[in-house]
Specification:
about 180 residues; alpha/beta; Rossmann fold; five-stranded mixed sheet; two-stranded parallel ribbon; 9 strands; about 30% helix
Length: about 180
Amino acid sequence: MGYALACAARDAGHDVTLVSGPVALPAPEGVALVAVESAAEMAAAVKARALSSDLIVMAAAVADYRPKQRLATKLKKQPGDLVLELERTEDILAALGRNKRPGQILVGFAAETEALLEHAADKLARKNLDWIAANLVGVPDRGFAAEENAVTLLGRGGEAIELGLKSKVELAREIIRIVTR
């Protein structure tokens, strides 16, 4: 979805920087691409560009947790179970919301398995967003690896715009049009 949003913003005449984790997609033409490998790298790359950006759309599903201990070598199989200790990663979207400058538009995504609109509305308020695109995950033929998705856009002014099931390219165009009007 992030690549479709970057292309839609570019096509709408915006200068676009796409901060992307590992994907099997070609870099979009006319878009500055910043490739990152980890949640920490994504946080640093996004925060370094945030204050100079008029519109920030955070579509990435960034990991909420990471292994507490990083190993330099492969962990060999041993008898018995393995317990992995995890630690929270930085909440990039919340950090952007705390440091949002006047006039800046901040858009987040809420990928939920239940209580979609309630969870999305909570995230919109808690993270100081202007808009949030709420979508159900775990539904066949839509979402992360699919060509189509269905989202409801919630706005800080109480807007609730059902965009329905469409191609990600169509959804991206509509999202960019709505959040920049």
